[in-house]
Structures are given as C-alpha cells and as structure tokens.
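Quick start: read one record
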Amino acid sequence: MRGVDWLQYRLRRPYPHRDGTMALRHFIRIDGHPMRMTWLMACLIAVCAAAPARADLRITRDHGGYVTEYKAKYERIRARHERVIIDGICNSACTMVFGIVPMNKICVTPRASLGFHQAYYDKSFTFGIKVISSEGTSDLMAYYPSSVKDWIRRNGGLTPQMKKIKNGPELWKIVDPCPEDF
C-alpha cells in the first residue's frame, strides 16, 4: 500500500479467537503504517459520522410564555449557531427570537404569522386579571431590532391586544422568507 498519505480503513482476513470463533482484524493506515483499531475507536468513528452537525428550530405553534425562558432558549440557539424557521404562529415572547438570534439565521415560510402585545404579569399572581407590566414591555422592546420596532410603531405601538402580521411583503421587511427547500 504505497502512497497512502491519509487515513485509510482496511479489513484483514478473519483470524481465530482463543474460543474458536472467527473475527476480523481492523487496521487503520496512517502514512503507510498500520495501526490496530480498537472497537472503541471504531464506535467513535461511527458515532461521529452518524451525528447531525446541527439542528434547526422550527416554530409552528408558539403562543409565548415567560420572557426569561425564551431568553435562555434563544441564547442557546444563538450559541449553537442554529437556524430558526418560523413555519406557523409565533406570538408574544416567541417573537423575542428577532432580538436574540441573528437575523441571517431566521426565516419565515408562507404559513408564518407573528403576534405582538404588551407584556403583562402572570395571571396566577394577579387573581386572573391581565395587569400590564410597563417594565416588561420596555424590556421586550429593547430586544427587538429596528425593523420590528418600526412595524410596531407604524401599527400604533404595543397594546394589550395582539397585533398580528402574516406572511407577505410587510413581514418580509422584517425577516427574509425561507428558501423553497424548507
């Protein structure tokens, strides 16, 4: 095997074990020198080859929730350099994705819709009454990029009622449509 300058995997002839069964010898050739490959090495190579490089987050029906949970979730996605595909409803705290994940990692499909409203306290702490949090609303607005803030301003600002934007030219001013293969 002359001229082998890179990793080459080779199987050798079967050889007998002490217990009488037959096994194959596994070798790796590096720069023409054979090295015995252990089963651990073989498993590591197989796992690395089979593991996906990265995953995409596909948002299909997200009505929002706690701002702190969404901050943590989107910061993990940003750290892993994953893409976000909005393929349905993304309301309330879900829209924080635009302020945390880079815009070039986010796209929308024809089914996408966004919903924005003022932040409010958890109803379980306010006896079921929706109490607006001005601090939470200003915190939420601080995360949004200027394209989102401009749309909110053009549509009367954040209010207690949900303001929705569906797929189309208005949404594409905020975020790019996904390539067709999504």
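The CA atoms of residues 15 and 21 lie 8 Å apart.
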